[in-house]
Amino acid sequence: MKGRNDQKFACTACGARHATWLGRCGVCGEWNTIEALREPSGAAGAAPTATALTGVDASKVIRIPTSLEEVDRAMSGGLVAGSTVVIGGEPGIGKSTLALALAAHASRSGLRTLYVSAEESEGQLAERARRLGAGSAGLDVVMTAELAAVLAVLADYSLVVVDSIQALSDPELGGQAGSVNQIRHCAQALNISAKESGATAVILSHVTKDGSLAGPKVLEHLVDAVFVIEGERSDESRALRCLKNRFGKVSEVGFLRMGESGLQDEPDPGAAQLEDRLAGAAGSVMTAMRDGTRARLVEIQALVTPNAREVPKRQFLGLSSQRCSVIIGLIEHFAGVKLDRFDVFMSIAGGHASDDPGLDLAIAAAIVSSALQRPVPADAAVFGELGLTGEVRKVRGEAERSAELRRHGFGRFVAPTGGEGASARRTPVRTLAEALEAMGLSRRHQA
Ligand code: TYD
Ligand code: MG
Fold first, then answer.
1. Of 63, 355, 427, 433, which has the fewest beta carbons less than 10 angstroms from its beta carbon?
2. What are 64-75's pLDDT values in tens digits?
3. What is the fold, at CATH topology level, of the domain defined by 62-267?
4. Concatenated DSSP letters of 35-83
C-alpha cells in the first residue's frame, strides 16, 4: 500500500495527493492542476517530532490588533499573525473600507503591508484612503487582477489584503475571474504562499444576498477564519460576525457604524432602537435579543388588525414564521385572545432578523398588546422562551440579557423564573398567562 510519503504530487484545485504526475486530477477532474510537492526540509522521509500538547505554547499566537475594539472583539482579539482570513459581505457593505483601515493601522504599527486592488483604480483607492485618513508610509498598493503578480510580491510583506478574490484570476487556469474554479485556485495559491512566507492574508469576498460566500463554500475550508459584514446599505449600522475561527470564538460579533470617515465602533447598538421608538404605542415590546455571545436591545412590533372577509394574513419580517405561528396558537389557547379574524404583521424594528427562541414572550406580548390595543408600560421589557404547554422557559444568555435591559434603564422586566430570582426590577413568571398578567395584558384587565 502506498503511504502518504509516496505521494509526491498534489492537485492545486482540490488538494488531493497523488503518487505520480497526472495531466488530470482523478479526484476533482481538473486538468493541469497537479504539481510536485516540495521536499520537506531535513532528511527525506524523516518522521516529524511530536510534542506533548501540554508543551505547546498557546501564547505563540500573535495577534495584530485593529484600530477598532468591536473588530478585535469579533476576531477574538485581532488578526492572528500568519493566518489567512476571509472577510465577506454584499457589494457596497464596507469590505474595502474595513480592509483599508486594517491595513493602514497595521502599517502604522510597523508591519509591511500590501493592499492588492483587483477591482478599483488607484484613484478610487486613494479617495477612500483620504476619507479614512489612511495614508501611511508603510502601506503599499498594487493594482492587479493577476494571481501571479500577487504571488510574486507576497513574500515581501507581513500583511497582504486581496480585494477581492472574485476579481483575481490565473489566466493559465482558464475560465473567468469569479468562477468557482478560479476562486478556489487563487485562494489556495494565496493561502499556500502566505503560509510559506509567514504573511497574514486578508481575502475579501463578495457574498450574495442569501449569505453564501459567492459560489465557493470551499473558501471557508481553506482559510483559518471567516468574518462577514452584515447590514443594509441604506442604513449605517453594521455587524462584523465570525463564522469560523481556528484561533478564537465562533459567533463573536462586533457592532459597527459606517460614518463619513469609515467604520466606527458602535458599542451600544440598542440605543438607536430606543431613540426611534414610539413610546406608549400598542404592539411595541422591548426585549433583549441574543446576537452571537452578546445581547442587544430590540423592539418587537406587532400590528393586529381585523380582517373578516379574507383568509387572515400572517407576515413575520425577520422572525421565524414557524415560531410565530406556534405563538399565535399559544395566545389563542392560553390567553383566550382569538386571532382567526385578524391579520397579524410582525417585525423586529430596524430590519433585524433573528430566530432566537428567547424572543417568544416579547412576540406574544406584542401581538396581545396590539390585539387589545393596550400598550405595555413604557419602562417594561420582557424575555423568555415559550413551550407548548404555555410555560415560560429559561433562555440562553440570561445574564447578558438582564444586564442589557438594566443598562438601558428598564425599571422592570418580566423574565423566566430561576436565574437571578425576583427583585424590585425583575418579575419572574412561569406561564404565558402570568407574563401577560404582569404586563397588564390579560383579558381580565380589559375595561
Ligand atoms: P466599500 O468599502 O467600497 O464596500 P465593498 O468593498 O464591500 O463593496 O464601501 C461602500 C460604501 O461605503 C460606499 O457606498 C461609500 C460608503 N462609505 C462611507 O459611507 N464612508 C466611508 O468613509 C467610506 C470609505 C465609504
Ligand atoms: Mg470593495
1. 355
2. 989 899 999 999
3. Rossmann fold (3.40.50)
4. EEPPPPSSSTTPPPPP--GGGS-GGG--EE--S-HHHHHHTTSSEETT-
